Amino acid sequence: MAGRRTPASRGNSINTTDGPSAADLLENKLAQLKSLLWCCYGDGIDWFDGAGPEHLENVLWLVADLVDEVGELHQRCESERAVRI
After folding, report:
1. CB-based burial of residue 39 (10 Å sphere; 0-12 exposed, 13-18 middle, 19+ buried)?
2. Fewer Cβ atoms within 10 Å of its own Cβ: the N or the C terminal residue of the chain?
3. How does pLDDT run across 45-70, given as a tens digit for each residue?
4. What's the predicted TM-score (pTM) here?
C-alpha cells in the first residue's frame, strides 16, 4: 500500500492551527479522488466480473464521501482566504 502523499508547501499560507491548511488537505483529497477514478476506469481493470461489482460499489461510495469532504474543505479554504484579505 502506498504511503500518504506529502502536502505541497505553501509559502504564503497562514495556518491558524498546528495542522495542515485547508488548501493542503484539499490538494490531498483531490489526489486521492484522481487515483480512485483511475482505478475505476484504468486499462486492464475488470470491475464487472466476480467480486468486482461489490468492490466498485464500495469505491464509488468512498468517492462520494471524498466529494463531500472536498466540498467542506473548499468552504474552509474560502474562509481562510477571507481572513487573510
Report:
1. middle
2. N
3. 777 777 777 777 888 888 889 899 99
4. 0.53
Residues 23/75, Cβ–Cβ less than 8 Å: no
Q: How many helices (H) and strands (E) would you count in the chain?
A: 2, 0
The 10s digit of each residue's pLDDT in 4-34 is 444 443 333 444 557 888 889 888 888 888 8
Distance CA 84, CA 11 (A): 13
Smallest CA-to-CA distance from 25 within 77, 64, 79, 78 is with 77
Angle, in degrees to the nearest 10, between helices 22-41 and 52-84: 160
* Residue 84 burial (CB count, 10 A): 8
